Amino acid sequence: MKGKKKKVSPLPPLKGGRRHETRNGKGLRTILAVLAGGLLTAAWPTWGIAPLVFIGFVPLLLIEGRIAQGERGRMFWLSFLAFFIWNVATTWWVWNATPAATLAWILNAIFMAIVFSMFHLTKKKLCNNPWGNFILIPYWMAFELLTYWWAVKWPWLNLGNVFSMQVEWVQWYEYTGVAGGTLWILLVNILIANIIQFFKSKEAKPILINIGVELVILLLPIFISKSTYKHYKDTGNDVEVIVVQQNCDPWNEQFDEKFYDQVIQNNINYSLPLITPETRFIVSSESAIQEGIWLHETDQVRALKTLHEYVQRFPQMAFVIGGTTYEFVPKGMEDDFPARDIGDGKHFYYCHNSALLIDTIHMQHRNKSQLTPAVEAIPEWMGFLRNFSITMGIARGTLKGDPEAKVMTFGEHKIGAAICYESAFGEYVSSFCKKGADLLFVITNDGWWGHTPGYRQHFEFSKLRAIENRRCIARSANTGRSGFINQRGDVLQQTHYWVPDAIRETLKANTKITFYAKHGDYLSRIAVYLTFVFLITFVAKTLLDLVKGKKATGNRKKK
Predict the structure, then answer these.
(1) What is the pLDDT of residues 158-217, one digit of tens each?
(2) Within its chain, how far is the Cα of 26 from the centroid?
(3) Residue 404 in contact with residue 202, Cβ under 8 Å?
(4) Greater model confidence, 444 or 378
(5) Which of 256, 273, 246, 162 minimizes the C-alpha distance to 476?
(6) CA distances from 31 to 37, 59, 60, 110, 375 (A)
């Protein structure tokens, strides 16, 4: 009809439909998948260029768009290739601690590829055009929430972590947590991919809309954050803290009984010259006390006696340090998965990775809850490994953790002491603050990984916890990187790798609860609800199409 504009498909169909295939097309898809993995790797801390993450998903989205429009290709394997490259290239150092790293790389890449493939199938069924790319956001954010919850806990590569070295960009994490960073990254990637796809279809209006929205979404958060960073001042009362890095070799010294007493003496020798009348806490690393501590007879432990005598000389301060603790399993709980047979088949005990607070009166402790997969926690479905080690030759079975975060008290202060891997769990660390913690300590042993990006990445994540909760953080690593971080995420002081040291800083003890600390990962929970809606709609549409297809086939047979 005259005057009627011809509709243009957002992505014109390829010649020959799904049957059309060329070597060049297959090679291009592979190149784009490798490029996606390379871009995500190149963006990651600590040597990465963070802005590259804003285009890291674009090659995969372009591949998905071509396959969705009829080009042959297996979305699962192409996305698996990209995510496997990303996993191996950013976390290869895990191999230094355990050969189980290989399984971790493969499994995590498979999970990511499943998520991306489900997004592809859902989009193709419900909204097969560039606007359907937004379905990826709830799917991916729901997956990231699962990495905090399920047995194979591995939130290390959650996208929002990438900005740990650009704290001036993400001061708004105090409202959203790292999930806000994930949302930001995915939105920018999708809008860029949409601009490219609409450009191919020569539709000017969607291109202009996407460019305008893209600029606002990309630049506005940075502008707001930089303004917040410039005007934010640490709040709270002054607290003087000393951090000790005793530099014990975890492979050759940590489990040598002759070295037990020396480690404790090193902590005293390094910290003693820095103590002043204002010193309130000395913080040492995870597992610094290797002498086994039975909780019903702590008065028999040499290390505890030595540290108790030390704080008696300076009653204004407390010593926070990590240790391995044990306790007998209550009667009737012998079948609890972490319970271990003491050797007689009648008595069972729990093993804990604990943070201890020692003052002039008593010892407080909390047990690590977020256990490292394979190293400290074996899923119950792998019960055949219950009493065996599958990593490092030292961890046997599963440790027993506290059911929830527990704060420790000294004077007017409440302390949240996150143990090692726990510092990667934003909502969990925030639970210390909800319970009144005015300072956060991170005690860790990053020496297992050697002089690799591992210990540096781990240090960087603490900066995000500081912003999310507006809490100062004192971080003690056995070796690696210890230091102090203020409420804006700035590093005030830090130590060097493989150097025994002690440093002192005056921090601000803040009691205000941030929006994120109060509400946790609410963005990810919203994403879970949206994911269910999309999945239910996808299943319903698929079933409806099957019914229609059968009816159409039946009608043709009748004719």
Answers:
(1) 999 999 999 999 999 999 999 999 999 999 999 999 999 888 777 778 888 889 999 999
(2) 34
(3) no
(4) 444
(5) 246
(6) 10, 9, 10, 19, 36
Tokens at 339, concatenated: 């319970």
- Cα 129 to Cα 238: distance, rounded to the nearest angstrom: 56
What mean pLDDT comes out for the span 508-516?
98
Question: 483-497 burial string, b = 16+ CB within 10 Å, else e?
Answer: bbbbbbbebbebbeb
Q: Residue 346: is its pLDDT beyond 90?
A: no
Secondary structure class of 352 (helix, strand, coil): strand
Please state, rounded to an integer, the average pLDDT across all residues of the chain.
Answer: 91
Q: On the CB side of 426, how many CA atoms lie within 13 Å of its CA?
A: 38
Tell me phi and psi for residue 97, to 5 degrees: -95, -35
Report pLDDT digits (tens) over 372-401: 887 888 877 766 666 654 444 444 578 999
Q: Supply φ then ψ for residue 251, to 5 degrees.
A: -85, -40
504 closest CA partner among 238, 240, 234: 240
Contact residues for 95 (Cβ-Cβ < 8 A; gap 6+): 101, 102
By residue count, the chain amounts to 559
pTM greater than the 0.85 cutoff: yes
Q: Residue 358 pLDDT more than 70?
A: yes
Whose tokens are 């240090």? That residue is: 459
**H helix or E strand, kind and range, residue 26:** helix 23-43
Task: Quickly name the fold that domain 237-322+355-382+403-519 has.
Answer: Nitrilase/N-carbamoyl-D-aminoacid amidohydrolase (3.60.110)
Specify the DSSP class assigned to residue 493.
Answer: E
Q: At what angle do helices 58-68 and 23-43 cross, to 10 degrees?
A: 150
Annotate 246-308 with DSSP letters as a single string: ----TTTTTT-HHHHHHHHHHHHHHHGGG--TTEEEEE--TT-EEEEEETT-GGG-HHHHHHH
The pLDDT of residue 204 is 77
Instruction: Show the 3-state SS of 35-74.
Output: HHHHHHHHHCCCCCCHHHHHCCCHHHHHHHHHHHCCCCCC
Q: Residue type for 392, please?
A: M
CA dihedral sign of residues 45, 51, 54, 55:
negative
Q: Do residues 369 and 417 lie in contact, with contact meaning Cβ atoms separated by under 8 Å?
A: no
d(CA 443, CA 320): 9
C-beta of residue 243 within 8 angstroms of C-beta of residue 283: yes
How confident is the model at residue 298, as a pLDDT? 94
